[in-house]
Design a protein that fits this description.
12 helices; 20 strands; binds zinc ion; 30% helix; Rossmann fold; alpha/beta; six-stranded mixed β-sheet; Metallo-beta-lactamase, Chain A; 2 domains; globular
């Protein structure tokens, strides 16, 4: 059996992991490099070369750094993902297709095969792959247990995860009940570089948003349009304060997918009191929003809309909840996002700013959780950390940690690029 980390061992994003036996070959994630990365992206030919003999690709979740190259995978290769995640991707591509050619992406998501959590998928009788739900800033995200029948090797690939979201407390019970001890742990390590970052829970963000909405009538919230927890925090805060949860068509479509898949299990994810933007300047709409106030989730592309709304809703000063990673706002970095900086400028100092104002928290496990996870699954062979900065180290006392190069362990080869 051979595990190859093609990408991700020394960068956040662009995750590609291959697990191959004599007659079975799968990939977990096939992500693109993060936006602004100076590294060259894989060519379509290279992608076809890597995957044309593969049996299947399994995606942990829909963030581009895990799924971004899916439309370049040859059609004969089966691609698996959570059913709700597939629908969210379709929403996104349908919206983007109004502005650019998205036919390849839409066709590839159309072909994707939904898996069911805890249902095992057998690959040529050699590899068994079982998805388990994890909490992350993406909806319908999974970790995978992969078992190689011949060498009797059990691998856990975590994908991106955290334990401070609304469903994060389910992580360790799931590990104990379904996963147990493994041989190899492939884990994300995003927060290794941000060890000092305070971990705020999603419930704290909800409470903070309630406070904000009590104090201000017009609030825009710059956040990920597909982070179910964050949107639930804002939605519930609106209900509590009787503000209008005001969303555009695309956001509304995403919320409907959330409600369809998760809203029946918990009321928290039932987005039943949204008000969809059609014409914010229409008299009736204006009367309603001026009277009740609103929170509106917005994206980096929303600058024009915000400006136009500010002209109509001008009886009170609008505030911004900046509910994203602070890195985007730093000038002259490869991850700087000018659109975001421009939006922030519209609000001057009227900004509740990220983690420090308790309106954002990372979608990734804090360092303590990373090591608790390691202890919980007790990998007998060792740990392969991925999705981490090049200058960070994963150190778990008592466990072997694999870094670049080739290592042979019995019948198994671990190759990290
Ligand atoms: Zn990621
Ligand atoms: Zn992610």
């Amino acid at each position: 059996m051979k595990i190859t980390i093609h990408r991700g061992a020394n960068q956040i994003g662009g995750c590609i992991t291959e697990i191959a036996t004599e007659n079975a070959k799968i990939f977990i994630d096939f992500g693109s490099n993060l936006l602004g990365s100076k590294k060259n992206e894989l060519s379509p030919k290279k992608i076809a070369d890597l995957t044309s003999e593969a049996d299947a690709i399994f995606y942990t979740h829909y963030h581009g750094d895990h799924v971004g190259l899916h439309h370049l995978i040859p059609e004969n290769v089966k691609q698996y993902m959570g059913a709700g995640a597939i629908e969210v991707m379709q929403c996104k591509y349908q919206t983007l297709s109004k502005y650019q050619d998205m036919r390849a992406e839409l066709a590839a998501t159309e072909r994707m095969i939904p898996f069911k959590p805890t249902d095992c998928i057998n690959i040529n009788n050699e590899l068994l792959v079982t998805p388990y739900f994890v909490s992350h800033s993406a909806f319908d995200a999974y970790m995978f247990v992969v078992e190689d029948k011949k060498t009797k090797t059990k691998i856990l690939h975590t994908g991106d995860f955290h334990s401070h979201g609304y469903l994060g407390k389910g992580l360790f019970p799931v590990l104990n009940k379904f996963v147990g001890n493994v041989d190899i742990l492939i884990t994300e390590g995003t927060m290794l570089a941000r060890e000092q970052e305070e971990v705020i829970t999603e419930s704290q963000i909800m409470q903070k948003t309630i406070e904000i909405l009590k104090a201000h009538k017009y609030v825009f919230a710059l956040c990920s349009s597909t982070d179910i927890d964050r949107l639930a925090s804002f939605h519930v805060a609106c209900k509590e304060t009787k503000r209008v949860f005001f969303v555009d068509e695309y956001q509304n479509n995403v919320l409907q997918v959330f409600t369809k898949y998760a809203g029946t299990k918990t009321n928290l994810y039932n987005f039943d009191t949204t008000f969809q933007l059609i014409n914010f300047a229409a008299e009736k709409v204006k009367n309603k929003l001026t009277k009740k106030g609103f929170l509106m989730p917005i994206r980096s592309s929303s600058e024009k809309l915000i400006k136009a709304m500010m002209n109509v809703y001008n009886d009170e000063q609008p505030w911004l909840i900046y509910s994203m990673w602070s890195g985007y706002t730093e000038e002259n970095k490869e991850y700087t996002n000018q659109d975001i900086i421009n939006i922030r400028k519209l609000f001057g100092t009227r900004i509740y700013d990220g983690v420090k104002c308790q309106v954002h928290t990372s979608g990734h496990a804090d360092v303590k959780t990373l090591y608790e996870l390691c202890k919980a699954v007790n990998p007998s062979i060792g740990v392969i950390p991925i999705h981490k900065d090049a200058n960070t180290n994963y150190v778990a006392e008592g466990y072997r940690v694999f870094t670049e190069g080739d290592t042979k362990v019995g019948d198994r080869i671990i190759h990290i690029e």
